[in-house]
Amino acid sequence: MSKKAFKDLKRLRSTNAYEKVKKAIEEDLRTEPHPQNLDIKFLKANKPWMRMRVGSHRVLFRPLSKAELAKYSAKRGFAVERIIDRKELETVIAKLRLSAKRRGLISF
Question: Is residue 108 part of a domain?
Fold first, then answer.
């Protein structure tokens, strides 16, 4: 999880959504194959980013690259970038796209 995602999750601690979001990230996202009830979609024009809907919140994440998988000796994994309210989605996606492009994660 990114530093921003940790801050986002910490901000949810005082809400009812905290446990749901935490469970979705720690258990449901790790399960292979993903449970049928997970609402996961690729972000249009922003691959490899995906969003998972958890109530009124969205978890923005991407699969780890081959280099990242090798670094962690893993076969599969995800990088959680942000946990946001659905109202913030468009604004955060625009920032996410710029950040990913700078880091060389995606090209346009």
Answer: no
